[in-house]
Specification:
single chain, about 260 residues, mainly beta, four-stranded antiparallel β-sheet, 1 helix, 24 strands, about 5% helix, about 50% strand
């Protein structure tokens, strides 16, 4: 018993003794929008303002607005050729191309079996990840065939966030952080110690807890704090090794020093 207590104490020390990830200031840019939803490898800014979705590059700005579907719940820009815009109140997902033209509409109210979708993220090929509140399951849904390619076991905890790339999906719930592959198999399960949102970049995960950020390296199960200045974190994103923080007045950029 004494050995067990010592081992647990040692592990706790190891976790909390991890050095924080350092950041180096790059620049800050004045920005006044309702919500930043993404920044890609080319520096293109995606944001929402007055319920209109914008894509802003250096030479032009495009926008998309669908007044019939009410307020935008979230936008996923991981695949710029198949951006998904989710309208939770109408249980509908719109798929846009890189010019923000509609290429597909998924109205889950009209599909059988009925799905009450609360969270959406990008999948590979013609799929999106959805969380079906009715069954409490995560599904990899093919919007061309209107069939689920994969379904997880029921998840019995309140869902906070959902992010994915072409290979894996991360689900953040009130109690747990899950990682699934595109077959719906569980790859990793970690306790949620107060994190409320997450971002994915190059297989690495970035978590927000209150007004602090944390880092979970790809193929690791150790969460490390990111050292950031004291500023409001309304939204945050990571593109390659650049951390973006939006505080309602400026878009701050920092270089992440992870080595």
């Amino acid at each position: 018993m004494k050995n067990l207590v010592f081992t647990l104490a040692f592990l706790s020390v190891c976790v909390f003794a991890q050095n924080p990830i350092e950041t180096s200031f790059i620049k800050k840019t004045p920005l006044h929008v309702e919500s930043v939803v993404g920044i890609d490898n080319f520096g293109i800014l995606y944001y929402l303002n007055n319920n209109i979705f914008y894509k802003k590059a250096e030479d032009k700005t495009l926008n998309y607005h669908n007044i019939q579907l009410g307020n935008v719940t979230c936008v996923n820009t991981f695949n710029s050729l198949k951006i998904n815009v989710f309208y939770k109140d109408f249980n509908t997902v719109i798929i846009l191309d890189n010019r923000l033209a509609e290429i597909h509409k998924l109205d889950f109210n009209t599909l059988q079996p009925y799905k009450n979708v609360t969270h959406v993220s990008t999948g590979n090929d013609t799929t999106i990840w959805i969380y079906n509140q009715n069954t409490q399951q995560l599904e990899l849904y093919d919007f061309k065939t209107n069939k689920s390619r994969a379904t997880t076991l029921p998840i019995l905890s309140e869902v906070y966030d959902l992010k994915s790339n072409y290979n894996v999906c991360w689900l953040l719930t009130k109690d747990t952080i899950y990682k699934f592959n595109y077959f719906g198999s569980l790859l990793l399960k970690l306790k949620n110690n107060g994190y409320t949102s997450l971002k994915e970049n190059n297989g690495n995960i970035y978590l927000k807890k209150e007004n602090e950020l944390f880092y979970l390296k790809k193929e690791s199960d150790t969460i490390v704090k990111i050292k950031t200045p004291e500023l409001l974190i309304k939204q945050f994103f990571v593109t390659n090794e650049t951390l973006y923080i939006y505080d309602e007045e400026f878009l701050h950029e920092y270089q992440l020093i992870t080595n």
